[in-house]
Design a protein that fits this description.
Layout lengths: L11 H15 L8 H15 L15 H16 L4 E4 L14 H29 L2 E5 L12 H21 L4 E7 L14 H8 L10 H13 L8 E4 L8
Parallel strand pairs: 1-2, 2-3, 3-4
Helix pairs in contact: 1-2, 1-7, 3-4, 4-5
């Protein structure tokens, strides 16, 4: 990937730098508004900066993830001809109280949060091997310490943690595989300053840095693992302000 004379990206760093700038100037990608609209807005932003530098490919990863994952990778290769990095960020998050979990919820959360990242990684491996690329999985601090009434979500993220380490061994030495475990970055929809101020305070009190993180903190971690971490694989980086120290 790169910035050639026609204005396209040359490096992963340039693309992610623009991603960080977009977040800082235009707000959080995943807050308020349909995620597809947000994805299209970012694609348009990068296109305006460097013509034909980004495209949106929409897919339902909760449905037949092996076939869908293969299609996503094939469409990406049609657009660019090669793959340099795969970031598995698509995820679903909602409560599933033990004792009341439905098979539909189980399948949906596991399919989106664990199965699809695995099959996307598998489908992307040949192309990433050719370019010496890498895979970055987005996890959660609750992959290690469960969140009350979110059992299936936590199970799915714990599985993705093991998936990260297992694929790092299987794909070495050709493709690096790492993970990022965010802490309090975006407040869940059920938490707002007006209705849940005490809950926010409770969470912040557990964070040594005494504040929530920003989307750009995660983007910077992705940038590091994608570009500068050539001797790092099979690792999970916690971007949580130290919260995991106090769980």
């Amino acid at each position: 990937m790169g910035k050639m004379d026609d204005g396209k990206y040359v490096t992963i760093e340039e693309f992610i730098d623009d991603f960080v700038k977009y977040i800082n100037n235009n707000g959080k990608l995943c807050e308020n508004g349909d995620i597809c609209d947000k994805a299209q807005a970012f694609a348009q932003f990068t296109y305006d900066v460097r013509q034909d530098s980004a495209r949106k490919i929409q897919a339902n990863l909760a449905n037949d993830s092996q076939k869908t994952s293969q299609t996503v990778i094939e469409e990406s290769l049609k657009a660019w001809g090669q793959l340099d990095i795969l970031v598995n960020n698509a995820s679903q998050f909602y409560p599933t109280e033990a004792g009341k979990v439905t098979q539909q919820a189980w399948r949906e959360l596991l399919e989106t949060n664990l199965t699809s990242p695995f099959f996307l990684s598998q489908a992307a491996f040949p192309s990433l091997k050719a370019t010496g690329g890498c895979i970055i999985n987005l996890l959660d601090i609750h992959a290690d310490r469960p969140l009350e009434k979110h059992s299936v979500y936590c199970i799915s993220k714990a599985g993705l943690s093991m998936c990260t380490m297992a694929l790092a061994k299987d794909f070495a030495p050709f493709v690096r595989v790492n993970g990022i475990s965010p802490g309090a970055i975006l407040w869940p929809e059920h938490i707002s300053e007006k209705s849940s101020g005490s809950k926010m305070t409770e969470i912040l009190e557990k964070i040594p840095l005494n504040r929530k993180g920003e989307s750009s903190d995660i983007a910077e971690a992705v940038k590091f693992l994608a570009s500068s971490a050539e001797y790092i694989t099979g690792q999970i980086i916690r971007v949580d302000g130290g919260r995991s120290l106090n769980q």
